[in-house]
Structure formats: C-alpha cells, structure tokens
Design goal:
- The chain contains eleven helices and 16 strands.
- It is of the alpha/beta class and about 400 residues long.
- The chain folds into two domains: about 290 residues, FAD/NAD(P)-binding domain, CATH 3.50.50.60; about 80 residues, no CATH class.
- The strands form five sheets. Strands 1, 2, 5, 6, 7, 8 and 16 form a seven-stranded mixed beta sheet that branches. It has a three-stranded antiparallel beta sheet with strand order 11-10-12, covered by helices on one side.
- β6 and β7 form a beta hairpin.
- α1 runs parallel beside α5, α1 packs parallel to α10 and α2 crosses α10.
- The longest helix is centred in the middle third of the chain and has 25 residues.
- The protein is globular and about 60 Å long.
- The N and C termini lie far apart (about 60 Å).
- Bound molecules: flavin-adenine dinucleotide.
- Flavin-adenine dinucleotide binds next to α1, β3, β6 and α10.
C-alpha cells in the first residue's frame, strides 16, 4: 500500500480540566459528575446530539437498574437518567411498582426498566449538562492524542474549523470504541466474535407507534456453546465496528433490511410509515481498554474493596456485580479512564456491562475520579467512594440485600 507522510502543525485552541470523549450515556454521566465536582469539563461529540446508541441509535430501552429479585442495585446518575428519560412519561414498560412504592413481590415481577422517547431525552440531557456548566463541542471527532511520557497532554480534534488541539488535565474515554485509548497507545483488546447486523427502527402503523427490533440480541459465542438462547442474525456476517468502510457497508445493509421489513408491513397496512431510523451504526462491542482489573461473569456477588458501584444482569434475575475501579483505569496511561461499553471486561461479561444503566454507573465514577485526581495510579479510592456515596451510589452487595 502506498503511504504519504502527513506533516501538520495544529493550533492549541483551548484547555480543560477534564475532557470527556464521546457524549453517549457514559459521556453524559461522566461529564455531569465531573462538572458537579466544580471542574472545567469539555465534552467532545462527533454527532450533533447527545445519547449515542441510546438516542441516535434508537436503542430506547433503559434496561433494569435492579437485580430481578426486587432489589435496586444502581443508584446515583444511573437512576437520575432513567427518571429523566421518562420526564414526560414512559413510552412503554412503566415500572409502577418501583416508582409508586410497590411491594417486593411486585418489584420481583416487573424489573426496574423503562422505554423512553429518544428525542426528548436528547434535549433534556443537553439541558442537564449545560445547566451543570459542561461545555459541549458537537460535530467534532477526536483523531489523535499527544503524549508526554505516559500521560495524554493534548487531544487532537477535527471539525469544520479544521484540526486543532485541546490541552487536557485528565481524559475519560466514552467513545464506546476506546478510540482515545488507541490513539494514546494504551493497551486495548477487541471483541473477536464481531457483531450481528442490527436494524432497529420506529414506525407508525394504524396511528400507533412501534419500535421494530431487528437483530434484537446477540449472545457471546462461549455462552452459545453452553446452550443459551441463540441470537437472531439477519445475515451470517459479523461486523467489527472498527473499520470505516465496513461501518458504511453495515449501515447500508441495515437500511436495506429496514426497508424490506417495512415493505412487508406496508403491504398489510397501507397507512404504515417509517417514523425514525438510526443515524449511527447499531454496534454493540468493539474495542475496550485493558484495565488494572477485568470483570467476569464468575464475579457474581464478589466483594471488591475498590468498588465504584454495582450492576445487575439484564439477561437473568439474581446476579449482582460490584464494579472495581480497576476496570475503568488504563493499565499504562496515567491520566486516562474509560467508561461505558469500552471498560475492561471479559467477552462474556461485555454483553452485561455494555448496557445503558451500567454505562451510567461507570460514567459517573469515572467523571468524579477524573475531577478529583490527575494521576490515577495515585487515586485515593476511599475519597472517590465517599463522593459516590454522597450522590447516593451504593457500592457493595451487602448494602442492598
Ligand atoms: C442493536 C443494539 C441493541 C441494544 N439494546 C439495548 C437495550 O435494549 N437496552 C440497553 O440498555 N442497552 C442496549 N444496547 C447497548 C447500549 O445501547 C449501548 O451499549 C450504550 O448505550 C453505550 O453507551 P456508551 O456511552 O458507552 O457508548 P455510545 O452510545 O456508543 O456513545 C459513544 C459516543 O461517542 C461518540 N464518539 C465515538 N467516537 C468518537 C470520536 N473519535 N470522537 C468524538 N466522538 C466520538 C459517538 O458519536 C457516540 O455519541 C444495545 C446496543 C445495540 C447496538
């Protein structure tokens, strides 16, 4: 392949205490948490709206913040965003028992999850961040990191103004794909199995709104071998989510499947119309950081002294996982944390922690830590935990069972 050398010098256009890379659920949570600590926070987002997959990707089911046995396990910003998402009413799955003081039996019967309106959530999330003092830069892609020893000193961005640099104190990688980690030459791992094709879209049929979930779920290979429910691949191909050309192809295939599905609907009901399609690729697991710790499904109810919050398992009732600080901390870059779907977990665990509520948990903890410390190798975990507790976060299984 022919290579050309690109030599450009870029102006340093600004600086911030905490740079949050990506404005999905993890980025919203990290930016909010860091700003509430009184730091100058800059959130960089490639698209022109917040929420990532949870809004622009039309994945509008806020999966459970409980363990399925009647115990809430996610608090703090994870709960705050769930409530915000249904500020004007739930689209579906209203969790009455949880929001209106139901019995434990009722809470066991219906998990604490909701379906929400993506557009309202985009607008409310943006207002929440602006009110907290977060600076948001939309339409801007992070494309490189400038290093000073094992620290990121500047983040290189590109937008309509061209390329420029931002001088940073700490960085939280909420890109979903550990893009910043890769640019900083942090250790990363990729999801070898790849992703099935997904094509979720909204339609109006007979005056009723519906969400069509083509490619509803995907199960890691190793669990399939153990006889778990099989996935519903639309095509046998899998997508890494990390290749520009492949992503374009994935989007085109997703559009073609949406159109084919809609045509069937239209043939049965000529008043049917598509009301919304996703504007970003619906990809679940791509690349993650290698952290000081790596969470696995075998860690159910395991006590971690450095826990930063908990998550249940959206796929089954019972498990509770404490999330150690080590899973958000890069092993080799001292001012870099990750949050959301690119934290350090095994392939089997990835499908559990990548979901909306868990992304909020790791986002909140990463945002607070990024505001409090400038070298995460020297982070005082007890004071981080004290800040999390002030926000109502519960850290250990024993506090909810
Ligand atoms: C088909 C499908 C179905 C799903 N179903 C559910 C479900 O029912 N319920 C549930 O809870 N979860 C579900 N999920 C998972 C969940 O939606 C996501 O994993 C979660 O929302 C990820 O949040 P995040 O903030 O980590 O990442 P993302 O939502 O991916 O956000 C990352 C953000 O960073 C931005 N970005 C990326 N790279 C850069 C860059 N280099 N520079 C600047 N900006 C960048 C992106 O534009 C994006 O806004 C599903 C996912 C898929 C794909």
């Amino acid at each position: 392949m022919r290579h050309i050398e690109e030599k450009i010098s870029v102006p340093v256009k600004g600086k911030c205490d905490v740079l949050v890379a990506g404005g999905g659920i993890a980025g919203i949570s990290a930016a909010l948490a860091a700003a509430r600590q009184g730091r100058d926070v800059l959130l960089i987002e490639n698209e022109f709206g917040l929420g990532g997959l949870a809004t622009l990707g039309l994945v509008t089911i806020y999966l459970p913040i409980c363990d399925g046995e009647g115990h809430q396990v996610i608090f703090g910003i994870g709960e705050e965003l769930l409530r915000l998402s249904i500020k004007y009413g739930a689209e579906d799955l209203y969790p009455k028992a949880w929001l209106e003081g139901g019995t434990i039996k009722e809470k066991k019967a219906k998990r604490f999850r909701v379906r929400y309106n993506a557009n309202q959530f985009i607008l409310e999330a943006e207002k929440l961040l602006l009110d907290a003092g977060v600076r948001i830069l939309y339409g801007t892609r992070i494309c490189a990191a400038n290093m000073s020893d094992s620290r990121i000193s500047d983040i290189i961005i590109e937008n309509k103004s061209g390329r420029s640099a931002i001088e940073v104190g700490t960085v939280v990688d909420c890109t979903g794909d550990a893009d910043v980690a890769r640019f900083a030459c942090a250790e990363t791992e990729t999801f070898g199995q790849g992703n099935v094709l997904a094509a979720w879209y909204y339609h109006l049929t007979g005056g009723k709104k519906g969400l069509n979930m083509l490619g509803f779920s995907d199960i890691p290979d190793e669990e399939k071998k153990q006889g778990a429910a099989s996935s519903t691949p639309l095509v046998s191909r899998r997508f890494s989510g990390l290749d520009g050309e492949e992503l374009s192809e994935q989007m085109q295939l997703s559009h073609a499947h949406t159109l084919a599905d809609f045509k069937k609907r239209y043939e049965k009901n000529s008043d049917a119309e598509i009301s919304m399609i996703a504007s970003i690729p619906q990809i679940r697991m791509t690349r993650r950081i290698v952290g000081d710790a790596t969470l696995d499904t075998s860690d159910d109810k395991k006590y971690f002294e450095d826990s930063i919050g908990m998550t249940g398992n959206w796929r089954k009732c019972g498990p509770i996982y404490e999330i150690p600080f080590g899973v958000i901390k890069s092993v080799n870059i001292s001012n870099l944390l990750a949050a959301g779907r690119c934290i350090s977990v095994t392939d089997a665990m990835w499908d559990i922690t990548r979901v909306i509520p868990t992304c909020a948990v790791t986002g909140e903890a990463a945002g607070i830590a990024a505001a409090m410390f400038d070298d995460f190798n020297k982070a005082d975990i007890a004071s981080l935990q004290a800040e999390l507790r002030k926000n109502g976060v519960k850290l250990h299984t024993g506090e909810v069972l």
